[in-house]
Amino acid sequence: xxxxxxxxxxxxxxxxxxxxxxxxxxxxxxxxxxxxxxxxxxxxxxxxxxxxxxxxxxxxxxxxxxxxxxxxxxxxxxxxxxxxxxxxxxxxxxxxxxxxxxxxxxxxxxxxxxxxxxxxxxxxxxxxxxxxxxxxxxxxxxxxxxxxxxxxxxxxxxxxxxxxxxxxxxxxxxxxxxxxxxxxxxxxxxxxxxxxxxxxxxxxxxxxxxxxxxxxxxxxxxxxxxxxxxxxxxxxxxxxxxxxxxxxxxxxxxxxxxxxxxxxxxxxxxxxxxxxxxxxxxxxxxxxxxxxxxxxxxxxxxxxx
Length: 305
Prior knowledge:
Helix content is 69%, strand content 0%. By secondary structure, it is mainly alpha-helical. Helix 1 packs parallel to helix 16, helix 3 crosses helix 4 (69-82) and helix 12 packs antiparallel against helix 13. The longest helix has 22 residues, at 5-26.
């Protein structure tokens, strides 16, 4: 089974948006059967800031054909002010306000957060799918993903977590889902790609948990489920590695064990969709996704550059 590049791009961006939207519903409906029923009955699946910022990242990449931090920040800011109700954390609006009031760059503003340390939240990782797709064959993936992250997340761990998530998506794009999936090789690559000890340590823990087939609730306790990237992105990767051949199983595994459910879903399903392609995603779900045609158009355009 050969999955073409466009299908993988569509799968990653549509998949991530669905993980986000269904993950948001899981806050209010955290039991699988009831959530599944709700998703089937609901008329429209509404995404959060996770997908709104992924859309902004894709828009900026398509316009500039590279990561341009200032342009990216302006795109994020414009989209935020158009739809401030998407559920943004406090960091991005503060950055947008500082840039507007002080005339500094977005990167400079991001570095001012948290006492000058910058944010190590998962906000850069949740939106990173367009980078992982666009640069899946590039030797500059780490540098470009990091540059996209530091527009809002300047802490080394915040940037490193986002780049490892981008690497997972890039690797998934290059793998053939018709062949045996080798989880050991996949996770070792992410360990080697990471540059901070915090992320490396968690990726090694993912490696151990996969070998031991630890139940999801125990794995989530070990890896974390908070908004910090080193306490959420690893569980998203674990969710994909436990269910590489099923988009649905990966999605529910990632969002039904507490924590930052919408972002866990967005990250896990970005990787799953990049691996399996759009055909593996239930069409009954994707047809309900808000602004589906916009997301599809962005993904298709990225695949053609």
